[in-house]
Structure formats: structure tokens, C-alpha cells
TrEMBL record:
Keywords assigned: Methyltransferase, Transferase
InterPro entries: Methyltransf_11, SAM-dependent_MTases_sf, Thump-like
Single GO biological process annotation from the record: methylation
Lineage: Bacteria, Bacillati, Actinomycetota, Actinomycetes, Micromonosporales
Superkingdom, natural source: Bacteria
GO MF annotation terms: S-adenosylmethionine-dependent methyltransferase activity
Residues covered by region (Disordered): 251-294
Residue ranges annotated for the Methyltransferase type domain, each copy included: 101-166
Keyword Magnesium: no
Ranges of compositional bias, category Low complexity: 272-284
Name of the protein in its database record: SAM-dependent methyltransferase
Domain THUMP-like positions: 348-420
Pfam families referenced in this protein's UniProt entry, alphabetically: Methyltransf_11, Thump_like
Species the sequence originates in: Micromonospora endophytica
Amino acid sequence: MEQFAALRTAEGVAALDAAARVAGGDPLSAAAALRSAGVPAGLAATALTQAELRRRAAGKFGAAAETMFFTRPGLEQATRMVVAQRRARRLRAAGVTTLADLGCGLGADALAVAREGIRVYAVEADPLTAALAQANAAAAGLADLVTVDCGDATAFEVTRVEAVFCDPARRRAGTGRRIFDPNAYSPPWDFITGLIERVPYTVVKVAPGLDHALIPAGAEAEWVSVGGDLVEATLWCGPLAEHPRRATIVKEGPPVNASGSKGAPSYHFSGSPAADSPAADSPAVHQLTGPGTAEAPVGPVRRFVYDPDPAVVRAHLVAELAADLDATLADPTIAYLYADDATPTPYARCLEVTDVLPFSLKRLRVLLRERRVGRVEILKRGSALEPERLRRDLRLSGDQPASLVLTRVAGAPTVLICQPAS
Ligand SMILES: C[S@@+](CC[C@H](N)C(=O)[O-])C[C@H]1O[C@@H](n2cnc3c(N)ncnc32)[C@H](O)[C@@H]1O
């Protein structure tokens, strides 16, 4: 708290500006540069840490990170802007005008919701995190729409709002270790399920590994991937549920931020809400929906193999994708799809299968040598083999690339040698 207060003095603001100019390079020289500019050692260290966190945060928040305040755990847990913005827009489209964010962290979701013109009552148990969330709302020009209270979210009077959002902490405070038991989340799972009963418009951010058995009856479960990485799942309850299951695939654009440097997506947000809300360079988004209970047909390995996006797999929508692609599984328990044609799809990567072998290291090595393959990418589903170990054991020396798919076909360990589908 003291360090944060120091950063908000005129001296602290100047130190942060100076730190932003030198962060990202050698930390010792950065600290020396600040001290030689007359910044006291303690303040220099604080400013450099914050500047470093802002640089890292650009991957999630683009240029908006430059004026936000972070803690390391707060940044790790924060929802990336593109995902928070989509969620907020869906809430606005459903007619929500007031929302409680129960456990708001640094406020990534609360700010996105407020940018849509929704009044947000945020509650955060940790005093420093709550102070940073309030400062982030002010920096975004959203202080009029966001109130942050430091306290226990489970005590919030939910009749004050139309909708609630909860993104429970899934890491232990202090150690940062991941929590897998939902009853150990904070707020805990039984509070969340109670919330769903009390407030029809409830939205819950959950781990993408969520057990389907925990999805409340009637709720929509949405899995989101960004740039091919599965980032989170959301439960949409009551009138917000549109389909039992949804896979949302966000294709990120070129990683260039507002100032032109690489490594951050370019989201541009104006300070004021709704009227001129985010003129983001919206990335392409694709959505697949369905009941999540259908089973894809099973057949032989065919000319093309599709590796479905992890959001499709986790949402149990592989059968819906199979129907779109006229594809089949080669093993009922493994989510690779096979088809005679290469159909362009945002929901899966497609490779052309050149060889199918029962798995044998020796045979694989011989075949890859014959083909002069020296570089392999290794994909796997349903195989216990370790890709890096296999890569070493193959001792490849050629100059040609290939993709290896380690899987099972009708229960038997199998390797597919593949090339990109043209
Ligand atoms: C996963 S983080 C929220 C991140 C936030 N959605 C974002 O994108 O920035 C969960 C937060 O809930 C807070 N928290 C946990 N239990 C709480 C409780 N009972 N009352 C209030 N806040 C709580 C934690 O301190 C943590 O900051």
C-alpha cells in the first residue's frame, strides 16, 4: 500500500515515466539509470517493478496496460481484455444495466462491463488489490461507473443489482499454487451455486478444466480459446443461457500494439463508456454451439486429419464439428477427426496424412530417414509418449519437415506422418 501510494505522488508519477523508458532491458542498468536521474532507490525499485508488470500486461490489455496498476498475482488472474469485452457486450445485449463483480481482482472484468455503460459494484477482499482496481477504473475514466468496496463478496446484498459476475480465486494466496477443488475456490463453489439460485442473471468465470458434472442445470457453458490457447470457461445462467454448450474461438490479429511494438494485441479504448465504447480492432471470432451430448461416427483413418481447437474439444462439440466437415473419429475416445476432403474451418487444424503406422520407434525412424525428415512437430492425443523424448530418440538429420500425430486407432497406438493440407 505504501509503495502504491508513493507511485501516485508527483515524484512517483515521474519515476514511473522514467521506469517505462528503461524497463525491459537489463534490470541493473535500469535501476542505475533511475538512481542517476535522482530517483530514491526504494521508489526506483517500485517503479521498475510496476513498469515491468505493465509491459507484461500488454499481452492481455494492449495499450490500456500503460496506465493500469498491477500486482503479479492480480495480473496472472486477470481476464484478457478481448475476452472480458465479449462477455461485457453480451451482458449489455441482454439488457443488464447494473452488475456486482464479486471478487473483482484488479478489475479487468469490471472495467470491460463499465465500458459498455453498465454500473458496476465491485467487491474485493484484498485491500491493495481493491485500491488498484479503483485506480484502474479512474485511469480508464470509468470512476463514475465503478465502485470498488474492500470486503467479503459473500456478504454483498445481491438484491441491489440485476446481474452478478464472479471469477473466484483459483490460486492459493501466498504460494500462487493452483486450486483444483472448486470447494476450495474463494468465494467457494457452494456460494456460487447459491448465487445462481438467488440471482437469475449470474455469470461465473471458471477454469477451462471444469468438470461438466458441475455445470448447473439449464446453464450455458462456454469455452474460450484465444490464438489456439484455451483460456477460460464461462457459465451463463438463467435468461443468459442460449445454448447448452458453446465453443468460442478468438483468432488474434498480428501481435502489434498501439505503439507498434510486437508482442501485444492492439486494443484501443476510449475513456468514456457506451457512446464511444471500444473501437477495438476486433479480432475474428467463431462460435460453435450444441447440446454437447452428441457422439461423432467412427470410421477408418482417412486422407485428412483434423485437430480440433481445444475449446471445441472441452465443450464436447466434436460431433457437431464432425457433421460440418463430414468427418469421422478413428477411435471413439480420441478427438482427432478424419475426412476425405480438406475443408477450411476455424475450428480445427487440418493436415494431410501421408503414412499410417502402428507405433514403432524403429519403423518410424527408418521411414523418416528415407524421407530425409529432419524437423518434426509432434501432436498427440491418447498417447502416453513424451514428444521431446521421442524427438531425441528419433535422432533425425534430414532437411525436410513433417508433422507426427501420435494417437490410437481403434485402440491401437498409431503414428500418422502428415504434411500441411494444401
Ligand atoms: C480471479 S481473481 C478476479 C480477477 C478479475 N476477474 C480480473 O479479471 O481482474 C479473484 C479475486 O477474488 C478475490 N476474492 C476471493 N475471495 C473473496 C471474497 N470472499 N470476497 C471478496 N473478494 C474475494 C481475490 O482476492 C481475487 O483478487
